[in-house]
Amino acid sequence: MTIDVTYEATLKEVRTERGVLRYHEAGDGPPLLLLHGSGPGVTGWRNFRGNLGVFAEHFRTLVLEFPGFGVSDDFGGHPMVDALSAAVDFLDALDLQDVAVVGNSMGGMVGINMAIDHPERVNKLVTIGGIGKNIFSPGPGEGINLLMDFTDDPTRERLIAWLHSMVYDPALVTDELIEERWTQATEPGTLESARRMYSRAAFEAGMRAQAESDATPYWARMHKISAPVLLTWGRDDRVSPLDMSLLPMRTIPRAELHVFPQCGHWAMIEQKTAFDSAVLAFLRRKDTGAR
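== Alpha/beta hydrolase ==
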C-alpha cells in the first residue's frame, strides 16, 4: 500500500500547556521521532520530507516542528531550550513512553540531551552532524559564522552564502530552495526567534555564559547514554566539521559512526539513499548488548 506523505495529508497538531505543537505523521509500527535542525527557513518538513515515506514503511514516523521556527507556536524563549522541553512535552501529549529518535544538528543535540536526562524515553538515537566539540578545527565553524551574519543582516545574498556552506554539491542550492527558505526566514516572528539564538550578540553571550557556568556541558555527560547511538556525518561538513564526531564516538558507550563522502551538513538530503539505508539498518537491527 502506498503511503500518502504529502504536506497536507500528514500535518497534525497537538496542544500542550505552553502552546500548539504541529507535526507530520505517517506510517504504522514502533514510534520514530524526527527532530529538525536550526537555521534560516528551516522546518521539520523541509529537513525530512524526502525521508518520511521511506521510514513510514517501517515506523510510525513523527516529524516534530519545534517552537519558534514559524510552524508550531513560539514558546517565547531561547529556541534550543524550548526545543528540549517541547520534545518531551510532545511525547507526553501523544502518550509515547519509548521512541527511537533521529535528530539533525540541533535536533541531534535535543536527542542527546533526551537520552541523557530521560534515558527511559529513547531506545535508539541517530544524530546527523552538529553534536560534540571541535577538537582540531576552529569553532564556531564557517556555516555558523555565515548563519550569524544572515541573522544580524538578513539579505538574500547572505542566505545563499549560508545555504552553500550547508552542502557539498552547490547544485542543491536551487532557486526554489532559496525562495522557500527566504520567505520563512524573513517572516518577522521567525526572524525575531532566530535572533534569540543566532544573532552574534546572543551567540557570544551564550558562549560566555557556558564558560562561566559550573554546570556540566552536555558533551561531558555523553558517557551516561545507555541507548545505542548511530552518529552520521558528512565528510565535507562546514558547519560542524568531522573532528567534532571524535568526542561522542569515543565517550558514548554504544556509539558507532557512519561518514558519508561528498556530503555536507545535510546527510539526509545530500546522501539520501545511503543515509536511509544506513539508518534503517541500524533502527531495525536487534541489539542484544547490555544497556
